[in-house]
Amino acid sequence: MQGIDALADRLKDTEALVLIRERTKILAPLLKHLNKLKLISQRSVYPHIDIAASTELGTVVSSNLHSDTPSYAAAELTWGLVLAAMRQIPQQLAALKAGKWQTGVGSSLREKTLGIYGYGRIGSVVAGYARAFGMKVLVWAREASLARAKADGYEAAPSKAAFFGECDVISLHTRLVDATRGLVTAGVLARMKPTALLVNTSRAGLTEPSALVGALRAGRPGMAAIGAYEEEAKAPSTDCDGKRRMHARHRIRFPR
Questions:
Q1: Does the pTM of the predicted model rise above 0.85?
Q2: 3-state secondary structure of 63
Q3: CB distance 15 to 59 below 8 Å
Q4: What CA–CA distance (Å, rounded) separates 228 from 106?
């Protein structure tokens, strides 16, 4: 994120600020510099906006939480990562480019167990994809979310430990707030199967710092497919041939 002074200078003449993501913090130290700001429009949740400071300064914050609207784009990305990791699509593509053919076929999803951590707008859609692929779905979430999952015909895990231990694929679908920061610890990762896959298309902060890298090196889980990072590339890089290339945002990681 840019420094407050640089961001304040860029936004000093802004009257209406339209935010798409939660990446940039709009807090009191910044807001106090934006004397012309009258409106902040945020499409979804707004943990990154200081509502008290906005109210005090007379800035209106407008948001449509669309809590009952499925998020198909995020769910489709999640399922794309699941398929790519389990079927080793990146490895097979790399092998083909290197002149080799079908070095492996990966693993089938049918009859395996998909764990949904957080059963909301995205998790519920991903659960439906798993059902179509012949997978068992196991859910771990807050009580209200578990009740919705059960009503939709899915099984609730008996405990968080059992959830991480039983699932072949675990996909994280929960908001990043103080209560969920670092919820995926080294301890629960160590319970995962050596053949298991962890998918995170939510927020990087849900995983305890450095825990996932350590877990992959230890062999539990065996794979991780990540679509969310603490720091994301903001500008194109230049390779040795002078060609401009964007940094890959979505990656599948395997242990060394």
A1: no
A2: strand
A3: no
A4: 24
